[in-house]
UniProtKB/TrEMBL annotation:
Molecular function GO terms recorded: 3'-5' DNA helicase activity; ATP binding; ATP hydrolysis activity; DNA binding
Coiled coil feature spans: none
Biological process, per Gene Ontology: DNA recombination; DNA repair
InterPro entries xref list: ATP-dep_DNA_helicase_RecG (IPR004609), DEAD/DEAH_box_helicase_dom (IPR011545), Helicase_ATP-bd (IPR014001), Helicase_C-like (IPR001650), NA-bd_OB-fold (IPR012340), P-loop_NTPase (IPR027417), RecG/Mfd (IPR047112), RecG_dom3_C (IPR045562)
Gene this chain is encoded by: recG
Organism encoding this protein: Amycolatopsis acidiphila
Protein name according to UniProt: ATP-dependent DNA helicase RecG
Helicase ATP-binding domain: residues covered: 283-458
SUPFAM superfamilies reported for this sequence: Nucleic acid-binding proteins, P-loop containing nucleoside triphosphate hydrolases
Length: 721
């Protein structure tokens, strides 16, 4: 009999096992059985072709609409060309070699499974040299088994790779399931009963070889719960261990700097700011650290909330640190905090208020002298507020008494970095932590990605923003539109406004040799071309991460002062940059950016009282999921709505960044969009279990569930958002 921990080699043979390992990193029975079908095809139903991703390995059930054999142009031999269709859209296929066999197997009008890498050729989607398995094939296929023999009415379609097509995986799964032993279920019986879940053994059968829809649904419910539970148990344990550490208590001080600040605030706080502010103020009084996430779109007024919290900490005689993802942002934060504080932030200077504190900027590229002074300010406690990049949490920076850390733009700051903060308080206490993000995320994502944090949101904007209209510019289909883009930039500049042009790359890196894809457009190239051509005569500046920091600062100041018309930049301008006179945002190779990044970028315009325009220039082909994502950005400027659309468009596993890192995600079935209830329920259940038994000593099965996830991905999915 077979158990989950068995290696596949002895079961499937060395050759097949090696192929699975090579193609899909599948080594054990558990790996294989956790490689769930991506979807199911029903016999007689064709797969929707829309939404394929260029470069992905896809398996589609389709019908042959056209087959044609012709001689190759510059080589001897034949090429078989074929068009397959789902009834609406088409995929072009080409086969090189074996022309006679192909002709025999690929009959017009027949349906089958086709698998291969999706490419684009002359603006059409293509599967080059696909592997295939015809459904109603007359003769036996090469390996002697026919598709019909081992697949029921519901046909699983697996995430596949070249050399290991979906139907071969199905065959391996069947072989393993046939001898699988019913082992003890890791989920305690009482939980299984409470929620009415089927046993793991039955769930694994049901997900791979469903007898009917009901069996499939039961299997999914159970396996989803396992995924939700594993993650929520980890978070519950994290919350438990982080929350039980000692923290510096920071009760508010009557007549302190916070009260003075509130008195001179030139505006009323919004109801959201007041409410979130009260939560934070309460948390800061506590003997255990606050770990809170504050969401709020760009301009929603997070900085004031953070500053007021920092002042409460300063009032308690401790220090606050504010971390930003880039030096540009850190410098900007320091400036705006000083501005907001006025004489309350000028301790040590002439004319400072009595209760004043000092705001110190500390970045890596400061001169040795400046840096020394800043380090001294932090270590002596002279600085109540220290602003810097994430490097600030490095060990070389010491604080007299760090009570509170604000992290701006959380999506660039992972769990590990947050962990590094834990021991930075005086006497080995854990400072309170507030992380802020302008990327709106649905509740379920917050519970999953930031599950170790309490969450708050600012949903109301304090001051009205001007509308931003967004347009996708598909330069492949409408080449003339690009001229119109530059004309539009000239018009904006003509009206006295300014424009950003964003490119994915800087352009000073050595050329990469092996890529067949065009490299992304680069700031340096685009700026030069525009200056010499379409935007000749305009004052064009350049900004990117590898400029020396004083130069960056100078460029930003020049742009803010209106001394530049156009700023060609990388995403360094993504967050926090505030130039109300900038009204146009052109994003080159927009398909190279994620949805939330595009949304962030476009938030740079429409900040004044003039409407903003955002143009997304792309060569992506119509009908791809890339274009669907751009269309989503075009369709709405509501960040929460957009984050939902984005989630819908992303593939399983992408959500937690597994696709980018090339690693398998632990979330295979659980949908952050559709399984809100499961996730919320699992969170409660996990909290209950961990409160009673933090180490899961009485729940070996659950402990094993947790360690399988943690070991698998090294908790990597916790890092990315
Ligand atoms: P965020 O950091 O969330 O992007 P900021 O804190 O920078 O937003 O706030 C954006 C602008 O709105 C700032 O100029 C800030 O002074 C102003 N602001 C913040 N809160 C209010 C309020 N309650 N009423 C009016 N203006 C506000
Ligand atoms: Mg901000």
């Amino acid at each position: 009999m077979t158990v989950l921990s068995d290696k596949l080699t002895s079961l499937l043979g060395r050759k097949t096992a090696a192929a699975l390992a090579e193609a899909l990193d599948i080594h054990t029975v558990a790996d294989l059985l956790r490689h769930y079908p991506r979807r199911y095809a029903e016999r007689g139903e064709l797969t929707d072709i829309a939404g394929l991703e260029i470069g992905e390995h896809a398996t589609v059930m389709a019908r042959i609409e056209r087959v044609n054999k012709r001689r190759m142009r510059n080589k001897p031999g034949w090429i078989v060309e074929m068009t397959i269709t789902d009834g609406r859209r088409r995929l072009e296929c080409a086969f090189f070699g074996n022309a006679h066999q192909r002709e025999r197997e690929l009959q017009l009008g027949k349906a089958g499974l086709f698998a291969g890498k999706v490419t684009a050729f002359r603006n059409k989607l293509q599967l080059a040299n696909p592997e295939y398995q015809m459904l109603d094939q007359d003769d036996d296929s090469a390996d002697g088994s026919r598709l019909d023999d081992f697949l029921g009415a519901i046909i699983p379609v697996y995430p596949a790779a070249s050399g290991m097509p979906s139907w071969s995986i199905a065959r391996c799964v069947r072989q393993v399931l046939d001898t699988l032993e019913r082992e003890e279920d890791p989920m305690p019986r009482e939980l299984r009963k409470r929620y009415g879940f089927v046993e793991l053994f039955d769930a694994l059968h049901g997900i791979h070889r469903p007898q009917d829809q009901g069996a499939l649904d039961n299997a999914r419910e159970r396996l989803k719960w396992d995924e939700a539970m594993a993650i929520q148990l980890i978070f519950a344990q994290r919350r438990h261990s982080a929350g039980s550490r000692p923290a510096p208590a920071c009760p508010p001080k009557p007549g302190g700097i916070l009260e003075s600040f509130d008195k001179r605030l030139p505006f009323d706080l919004t109801s959201g700011q007041r409410e979130v502010g009260e939560h934070i103020a309460d948390d800061l009084c506590g003997e255990h650290p606050m770990n809170r996430l504050l969401q709020g779109e760009v301009g929603s007024g997070k900085t004031v909330v953070a500053l007021r919290a920092m002042l409460q900490v300063v009032d308690a005689g401790r220090q606050a640190a504010m971390l930003a993802p880039t030096e540009v942002l850190a410098a900007q934060h320091a400036r705006s905090l000083r501005e907001m504080l006025g004489d309350l932030g000028q301790a040590g200077e002439l004319g400072a208020a009595d209760e004043a504190t000092k705001v110190t900027l500390l970045t890596g590229s400061m001169s040795t002298k400046e840096r020394k002074q800043a380090l001294l300010d932090a270590a002596s406690g002279a600085a109540g507020i220290v602003v810097g990049t994430h490097a600030l949490i490095q060990d070389t920076v010491s604080f007299a008494d760090l009570g509170f850390v604000v992290v701006d733009e959380q999506h660039r700051f992972g769990v590990e970095q947050r962990d590094a903060l834990r021991t930075r308080g005086a006497n080995d206490t854990s400072p309170h932590v507030l992380v802020m993000t302008a990327t709106p995320i649905p509740r379920t994502v917050a519970m999953t990605v930031y599950g170790d944090l309490e969450t708050s949101a600012l949903r109301v904007m304090p001051v009205g923003r001007s509308p931003i209209s967004t347009t996708v510019v598909p330069v492949n289909e409408k080449p003339a539109w690009l001229d119109r883009v530059w004309q539009r930039v000239r018009e904006e500049v003509g009206k006295g406004h300014q424009a950003y042009i964003v490119c994915p790359r800087i352009g000073d890196e050595p050329p990469s040799d092996k890529s067949d894809k065009r490299p992304p457009l680069a700031v340096l190239d685009v700026a030069a071309e525009l200056a010499a051509g379409p935007l000749a005569g305009l004052r064009i500046g350049i900004l990117h991460g590898r400029l020396p920091s004083d130069e960056k600062d100078a460029v930003m100041r020049a742009f803010a002062a209106g001394k530049l018309d156009v700023l060609v930049a990388t995403t360094v301008i993504e967050v926090g940059v505030n130039v109300p006179n900038a009204t146009a945002m052109v994003i080159m190779d927009a398909d190279r950016f994620g949805v939330s990044q595009l949304h962030q970028l476009r938030g740079r315009v429409g900040r004044g009282d003039v409407p903003g325009v955002c143009l997304l220039v792309t060569e992506a082909i119509d009908g791809t999921s890339t274009r669907e994502r751009l269309a989503a950005v075009e369709s709405t400027t509501d960040g929460f709505e957009l984050s939902r659309l984005d989630l819908e468009l992303r593939r399983e596993g992408d959500i937690l960044g597994a696709a980018q890192s090339g690693k398998r995600s632990s979330l295979k079935l659980l949908s952050l969009l559709q399984d809100e209830e499961t996730i919320a329920e699992a969170r409660l259940c996990a909290q209950e279990i961990v409160t009673a038994d933090p180490a899961l000593a009485t729940h070996p099965g659950l402990a094993q569930l947790v360690s399988s996830v943690v070991d698998d991905d090294r908790a990597e999915y916790l890092e990315k958002s």
